[in-house]
Amino acid sequence: KSEGTLDVGKSDQVTVTFLPQESKAYQGEIVLSYDGLDAFIPVFGESHNDNNVYLSKSFLHLDDAYITLHTQQHVKIINKSAVPVEFQWRAFTSTKEEQEKKQRLCSELQQEEAEQRMLIEETYNEGSDLESLDSDDSYDNDELAKKNERKQAKAIANLARRYNNIRKAVEDDLMLFQDDIFILEPVSGKIWPNTEITITITFKPQGPLHYSCTAFCNITCSEERLPLQMIGEGIGPKAKLNIEEMDIGDVFVGKRKEIDVTLENKGEIEAQFNLLPFETPFGSKFSFDCDHGILGVKERQPIKISFCSDILGEFSETFKWELQGSPELLSLTIKGHVVAPTFHFDEDIINFGAVSYSFKNTKEVKLTNTSEVPFNYSIRVPGDGKLLQKEFDITPSKGTLRELSSERIKIDFISESVRKYDMVMVVDIDGVGQDMLAIPIKGECFVPTVKIVPNEYLKYGDIFLKHPYKWGLTLINESNLPAKFEILKQDDQSRILATYEPEPEKGFIEPNSETVVTLTLQTKKIGPLRLPLYVKIIGNKQEPQLITLLANSVGPIVEAVTPELDFGQVEVLKESRQKFTLLNKSYIPAEYTAFFKNKNSIFKVNPKTAVLNPQESMEIDVLCNADEVQKFLDTLHLVIAEGHDVEVVVKARGTGSTVYCQENITKVDFGVQFTSRVVVREFFVENRGRKPQKLTWNRVAKPGEFKKDKDKKKGGKDEGSKGSRDNAVTPNTSTLTGGKKNTTAEDDPFAICPFQIVPDNITLQPKMGIMYQFKANCTSAGKIEEQFQCLTVVANERKPKVVFNSTFEGEF
Q1: How high does pLDDT run on average in the chain?
Q2: Residue 703 has pLDDT above 80, yes or no
């Protein structure tokens, strides 16, 4: 103890421990303080290394160990001294190195702590700005700043506490020896005088490597630490292939070859194997049914290797397996030679001989596979289709030919060039090579001579517009080869006038024979036509031969069977009807439009427009409605579309009167009426004629009435005698004596006759009318009947005509 209370007359023992760290002399003093006084006590000591404590071995070579397993050896610490000693296995040679290590660690911790503190300050500074923006009005800026400072101080305090704990742990650390490969047990202890302690060293390798490590034994009686160097070798898995090199000889391309090898585990631990990738051209043709796995101790793994190559040549491929935990690689080298399959054609040459331009010619050859492997082939003709279109079509051009089998190959040759052919057909083997086999192809192409009849003009003559006409064009092949022809398409400019359709438009002509091309011509315009037609012989380098089509296009031909239509005398204002026949003599439809020459014609035609089918006849109605008493002469024009017009002369003579009243006024019955009362009836009379007419109404005297009037006026003047002629008709308002009005008539218009017509005299212009008033008024009772006539004088005529005879009657 370093302090205490000493009673009077008592004594106490104080123990001073001397623990030197170095072998040298030490000097110091102890200060004893009591009752305000100090007493100084000198202390001396000297330390020496005790060589009586040592290791039984300073170098230890541990037995090799398989990874995942371990080996052990022992070393002894021997104490021959007279005092007990304590030992500790340390990682460093001296206390100075341990302190330097701890100082480095503390320096790193201090730097790390400073960085963490700076990060905390930045974080809280940024957080205070955000909090001031997002907070409500319950906190002012000072309060928020203080709140943030408290949080920051708390975080810094936690950080300082954590790093202080870490530093304390570093300072308190004894720096004992620790290692995952070499493990020493026990790591510390006490050795009594003249005794020893056994230290067990365990070697646990983690890989097939050479390991070396040194541990230092710190003994209390020695300044220097006793080193122990340990080395050991880690052993990985051990496996072996039963074959390391193999020659498989010749192998046909495309044929599969199988190889069997065995992988055996020769070690004392499991062997995990894995086949390394192989990227060489031939190496990629190998396949392994087992490229990875785990072999137990003494276990064997059969591996089947398959080889199938599509390329030719010699090869030597080395495949390597890695064993996990072992630096060594297992290798297998396989050598061999890939050879092409053998095959041939059954012909030495393909000779087409003389061929016609653009005609298909076919030959066949047989391709035979004489090898024991199938192969994929492609057949082609080099140079075919480079300048022109392809001329050779090979069927099949590609495929698979089974081992020891054959296939028929068809070659279709369509020559597109007038020349001699000297070419070859080659066979390529997929994945093996090109031009593996070649066979010559020979032939010569000609263009046959073709004669065209007629060779200049093809005459159609007169043809109807838009009606198809057919004519033949003969093509004569005078050679021993077939020929192809084509009628070139008609140009757009000539199609405006007419169109022609060849049948066939293209085709071929057998050797020494002829064919007829039917040309269907259809015109679109009237008049003479010249159309160019071009005939091309396929393969002929000369210009196509020109044939001119000649034709005269005409429209429909229509005629009237009756060129003149005479209605004779017809009653005016009544419709009369006659027919005439219109005949279409052509082979095309004829459309007509009919109208009369005169503007205000009394004639009408029905239908005004129609279409007559080819060779069709149609009856046309002509209506006559005369509106004047006179002769009528008109011309019916029939305009034929795209043809010549037709005219028909139409005649008629109107009879009767053109004065018309819709109501029947032959009898005007006033019925039963009261006396001395005017009754009016109205009738509308029209002049439907083309001339003005003067209308006059006259009363017809009753039999004997004129004679009585004559007797009453006997003895009168001579003029009165002349006026009293025996006339049956009197004016409407005049007396029966000379036409002079008596005093009674002047005062009362109904004095003479109870009936009156207003107006009784008027001139009606053409297409005008008048509303007549028929009045009745009688002063005496009884039934009365009178006769009236309506006379007309037309235009400048002098003789009047009777228009209406009317009977007026009434009962008063």
Answers
A1: 84
A2: no
CB 445 within 8 A of CB 357: yes
Percent of the chain with pLDDT over 90: 31
Report residue 486 as tokens.
């084509």
- Measured between alpha carbons, how far is 416 from 433 in angstroms, rounded to an integer? 30
Asked whether residue 725 carries a pLDDT value surpassing 60, the answer given is: no
Q: CA 327, 330, 336: angle at the middle one, nearest 5?
A: 150
Q: Is the pLDDT confidence value at 620 over 50?
A: yes
- Does 720 have pLDDT greater than 80? no
Can you say whether the dihedral through the CA atoms of 185, 187, 191, 194 is positive or negative? Answer: positive
pLDDT band of 739, cuts 50, 70, 90? very low
Query: Which comes out higher in pLDDT, residue 252 or 790?
Result: 790
Two tokens, residue 513: 């024979």
Half-sphere exposure of 401 (CA within 13 A, CB side): 29
**452 CB neighbour count, 10 Å cutoff:** 16
- Separation between Cα atoms, residue 301 and residue 224, nearest integer Å: 57
Q: What is the rounded CA–CA span in Å between residue 603 and residue 625? A: 7
Chain length of the chain = 812
Pairing mode, if any, of strands 469-477 and 514-523?
antiparallel
The Cα 464–Cα 527 span in angstroms is 10
Which positions ≥6 away from 532 have C-beta within 8 Å? 491, 494, 546, 547, 548, 549
Among candidate residues 266, 250, 430, the one with its CA nearest the CA of residue 335 = 250
Alpha-carbon gap, residue 448 to 65, rounded angstroms: 97
Q: In what order do the strands lie in the sheet with 71-79?
A: 53-55, 71-79, 195-203, 182-185
DSSP structure string for 53-65:
EEES-SEEEPPPE
pLDDT of residue 633: 92
CA-closest candidate to residue 505, choices 522, 533, 485: 485
Band (234; pLDDT cuts 50, 70, 90):
confident
| Interval 635-686: pLDDT, tens | 999 999 888 899 999 999 998 888 889 888 889 889 888 888 999 999 999 9
Buried-exposed string 745-777: b where 16+ CB fall within 10 A, e elsewhere? beeebbbbbbbbbeebeeebeeeebeebebbbb
- What are the E-state strand segments in 188-241? 188-191, 195-203, 210-219, 226-235, 239-241
- pLDDT grade, residue 253 (50/70/90)? confident
Q: What torsion, rounded to 10 degrees, do the Cα atoms 499, 501, 507, 510 define?
A: -100
Amino acid 747 reads D
pTM: 0.46
- Beta-bridge mates of residue 526: none
What's the pLDDT tens digit per position in 158-182? 888 888 888 888 887 777 888 888 9
Question: Tokens 């194997």 appear where?
Answer: 273
Question: Taking a C-beta distance cutoff of 8 angstroms, is the pair 204, 70 a contact?
Answer: yes
Q: Please compute Rg for the chain using Cα positions.
A: 73
- Read off the tokens for 415: 């020559």
The percent helix, strand, coil of the chain (3-state, each to 5) is: 10, 50, 35
Q: Which residues pair with 319 in a beta bridge?
A: 332
| CA geometry: angle 97, 103, 106, nearest 5 deg | 145
